[in-house]
Amino acid sequence: MKRPASSPEPHEQVADRLNWLRAGVLGANDGIVSVAAVVVGVAAATDTIGAILAAGGAAWLGGAVSMALGEYVSVSSQRDSERALIEQEKRELREEPEEELAELTGIYEDQGLSQQTAAQVARELTEADALGAHLSAELHLDPDDLVSPWRAAVASAVAFLCGGLLPMLAVLIPPPVRIPLTVVVVLVALGAAGALGARLGGSRPLRPTLRVVVGGAIALAVTFGLGSLLSGLGVTH
After folding, report:
1. Count of helices and strands (H, E) across the chain
2. How does 56-66 read in b/e, with b if 16+ C-beta sit within 10 Å?
3. How is the chain split into domains, by residue range?
């Protein structure tokens, strides 16, 4: 055959890139909302730019570390599961080769091939790369292309930092218009992120965009209200 069973098809490579892009958009969206909620809340309580930047900076860096750690743990668990499945498949191929060949044949029959053709395809793929053929057909795994926890962690952290940088810059606007303009900038950015995520996912952009913008607006309203309440009570003075 022209392509080994374990080699990803071009459309699978495209899908993998799109998944990473969608994850990046989501990470940036989290950075925008998380940092904006903090800086708007603190700005509602005090005009002191040092306090606002300190709180925003802590949320910015702490959020990025949290995103990276969460992604690393999640992807590490996924990678461990994939490795366990690969080892199990190796063991089954070693101990029950005939049963595994019959199972592979059955998979191709279920996909629409005749029994004779399915058996021939299964036999030829098994002779070329038994493990790759079974992992691809049964589990949709490529043993040479397992997910990387470190790459996922770094990508999530960078996406969060990029998204969170926008509200950090917007809040530097002078006090009279600081909060309104920051809110506007943040909501526009969230709308753009929502539309991009919808486009990458192949869905219509209106509902996902509105969902992200409304969610961000609620988060900003809540933290602004809390900051205003604390300022009114004199807690920040």
Report:
1. 7, 0
2. beebbeebbeb
3. 10-232
Tokens at residue 194, please? 């929502």
Q: How far is CA 190 from CA 26, 160, 201, 217, in A?
A: 10, 13, 16, 10
CA contacts within 13 A on the Cβ side of 206 = 0
Alpha carbons 159 and 196: distance in angstroms, whole number = 14
pTM over 0.85, yes/no:
no
Could you give the dihedral angle defined by the CA atoms of residues 123, 128, 130 and 136, in that order, rounded to the nearest 10 degrees? -100
* Other beta carbons within 10 Å of 103: 15
Tens digits of per-residue pLDDT, 157-209? 999 999 999 999 988 888 888 889 989 999 999 998 888 877 877 778 888 88
Q: Is 116 exposed, middle or buried (0-12, 13-18, 19+ CB in 10 A)?
A: exposed
Residue carrying the six token digits 């990458």: 200
What SS3 class is residue 111?
Answer: coil
Query: Mind listing the pLDDT tens digit for each residue in 56-104?
Result: 999 999 999 998 998 889 888 888 888 888 888 889 888 888 888 888 8
Contact call for residues 162 and 151 (beta carbons, < 8 A): no
Q: Indicate the residue type of 113.
A: L
Q: Does residue 97 sit in helix, strand or coil?
A: helix
